[in-house]
Amino acid sequence: MGEDLFWAIRGGGGSSFGVITSWKIKLDPKSSASDLLHKWQTIAPKLPAELFLHTVVGVVNSASQGGKTVIVSFTGLYLGTAENLLPLMQNSFPELGLQLNNFTQMTWIQSVLYFANFPIDGSLEVLLERNQTSPSSKAKSDYVKEPIPLLGLEGLWKMLLMENSSLLLILTPYGGVMNEISESETPFPYRKGNLYGIQYSVNTGSNEEMQKHIDWIRRLYAYMAPYVSKWPRQAYVNYRDLDLGVNRGNSSYEEAKSWGLKYFNKNFQRLAQVKARVDPGNFFRNEQSIPPL
């Protein structure tokens, strides 16, 4: 009777066969967010140059857990066909369980719309719109040279669940063509030797709440210190972080090293020398502009 009864109560209505007092569930074994992200760290920088697979980490409400939970999303861009991509992903990252219908083929310019969160069939004119507004936020950045261990990821999830504002971590893999460009080819030096970069971002909300959210992201940044680059602790200049240091009027080269070396490493000195030739009076300056040397 057991098998038939179990069949009947799964869809036969809830009032004909008795009262269910307990229910045992056999979970389908799945990889956890920690397992998936841990593996992503080792494969994403080594994927073919035609494939970019980045990760976005956030926090969402969880009805099943009665609170909040961490969500890890994987999004990719492949220069090729879905038919060629499928076996590549199934061989390199089978844990994602991808099938052909998980891919969307589009033109390259449509991919720009997609990554900017616009409909891919919409007008390209939206990319020229410069009057868009977004909530106030605070961002910081890091570079990872060795995979963060599972214990470190579990601690990261706990840190994220402490924050009650909208937050994002964007993990951008390096490798590929990046490894072929020397650190002095352009002012941006962080290429070969980095597995991926991290952008931390949190909405700061109202003026009354702002300092609380800024304090949280600073604690998150401190937590990540053992797992990221050191001497200097590298940062990405386009995620400007005034916590690293700011110019006070006409700051000297030595004073500006506090943030300049983190953004540009050895290239900072050359940038300051160029600045001295083209703008010796330091007319063009801001909180983290290049000082003349």
Describe the fold and architecture.
- There is one protein chain.
- By secondary structure, the protein is an alpha+beta fold.
- Helices cover 31% and strands 16% of the residues.
- The chain has 8 helices and 5 strands; from the N terminus they run H-H-E-E-H-H-E-H-E-E-H-H-H.
- The protein has a 5-stranded antiparallel β-sheet with strand order 2-1-4-5-3.
- Strand 1 (51-62) and strand 2 form a beta hairpin.
- The model has no long low-confidence stretch (mean pLDDT 90).
The proportion of strand residues reads 15-25%
Main structural class:
alpha+beta
Rounded to an integer, what's the Rg over CA atoms? Answer: 24 Å
Poorly predicted runs: none
**Strand-and-helix sequence, N→C?**
HHEEHHEHEEHHH
List the helices and strands and how they pair.
Blueprint: H1 2-9, H2 33-43, E1 51-62, E2 67-78, H3 82-92, H4 108-115, E3 137-144, H5 150-161, E4 167-173, E5 196-203, H6 207-224, H7 253-264, H8 267-278
Antiparallel strand pairs: 1-2, 1-4, 3-5, 4-5
